Amino acid sequence: MESLTRLSHLKSEAAYARACQLMPGGVNSPARAFHAVGGKPLFIQQAAGPFLFDIDGHRYLDYIGSWGPMILGHAHPQVIEAIVHAAERGTSYGAPTEAESELSELVIAAVPSIDKVRLVSSGTEATMSAIRLARGATGRDKIIKFAGNYHGHVDSLLVAAGSSAANLGVPDSPGVTAGTSRDTLVLEYNDIDALSEMFADCGHEIAAIILEPIVGNMGCVPPRPGFLETARELCNRYSTVLIFDEVMTGFRVAYGGAQSLYGVTPDLTTLGKIVGGGMPLGAYGGRIDLMDQILPSGKVFQAGTLSGNPLATAAGSATLKLLRDAPPYAQLERLGAKLGAGLSHAAAAAGVPHRMQRVGSMMTLFFADADIFGWREAQHCDRVKFARYFWGLIDEGVYMPCSQFEALFFSQTHSEEHIDHTIDAAHKVLAQL
Ligand SMILES: *Cc1c(COP(=O)(O)O)cnc(C)c1O
Question: Which residues face 215 on adjacent strands?
Fold first, then answer.
């Protein structure tokens, strides 16, 4: 078999062989295993600013940013200092701290729809808890999710399989019971008619709609005009809880998240990734009457030994304060527009059918000849071509997400020159496809 890369990755190969003896598939999260592009994962030694360094001594411009969190760039001095300072005072207490209130105040000030917030340890925990709260508050069982939207590995949300029409959920994973997934209704993203029909059919049984207000987890798919508004309107009419999963988009597309860009207000919001500044932290929050139903002020159970952990809240607060006081969003938009146009142009020059879909500093170059509105269209992408593009860019020192169905991210440390280098590399690689 032809080698996927020209560079030597001998140390990474050895590290991977060792890891495969120890962990399922050699990794602690499946996307890291590079299965979508073939080949073996690169093991990382360290990161700084816009760069990743692998253990074979290669440097890459990083376009995954730990899959979203690193909007300030890697190892930002003020974030590192905040973590070190917190660690010196102990790593966990199991008792309240003022640091938790500080981060909560920052989140509530940033996202107007959040009156109260609960800190957890991951995005998965945030969505799982928000769903439980919606069910507890409404006394209803059914939830609506959209195919190609990822909300973490919550049993009831691991359902999106091949659904081109409204149907009862079929689980994506062994171990998720039919009983669990039966109450998950799966619809196509951006399909306003299907959503309206579902509510006409059984709206009074639906506890919640959960959605990514801009999808990142099937590649970057923005909402069509009217989609979020329709979800809001139906939830009002049927007293259903509208949950925006902003684990990826929160503090990424704007300081106030996607809801501030589109002007649609959810009842509950889930956060993760950037809110923890690269540490394991998530959050969910929203309307006070809902949030006050969480134990111990209410009856809906949710807890966590490491929730509101001092190192994580220190990293989160340091990150949010930097984003608030010196917002990078105008620069991210300007360089994002340049990168998006540059990658599109490189594909066009090489005669490669493509669509560029972008919001600010998250985007995807789809190897497809039609717009992607949902999971149905996403199926038509040329994943073989994508894999060759990915490995070609690795050889040029550019580390893109290792799947056609992931959005790329960049940070405030990516300069004009870095973006230019990336576009030049894409021209070279795409011309050879
Ligand atoms: C990453 C992600 C999650 C899951 O967060 P984890 O911290 O990996 O558990 C949930 N929802 C969305 C939209 C995400 O992008």
Answer: 221
* Ligand 1 atom, smallest distance to 272 CA: 7
Instruction: Map out the domains of the chain with their CATH numbers.
Output: 10-71+328-431 (3.90.1150.10), 77-325 (3.40.640.10)
Measure the CA–CA gap between 301 and 307, rounded to whole angstroms.
14
Distance 245 CA to ligand 1 centre (A): 8
pTM above 0.90, yes or no: yes
- List all residues whose CB is within 6 A of at least one atom of ligand 1: 122-124, 127, 150-152, 212, 216-217, 245, 247-248, 272, 282
Span 27-41, pLDDT tens digits: 999 989 999 999 999
Strands (DSSP E) found in 197-289: 206-211, 241-245, 268-271, 282-286
User: Which tens digit of pLDDT belongs to each residue from 160-182?
Assistant: 643 333 345 667 788 888 888 89
To the nearest 10°, the Cα dihedral for 379, 372, 257, 116?
-50
216 Cβ contact partners less than 8 Å away, ≥ 6 residues apart:
68, 248, 249, 362, 406, 407
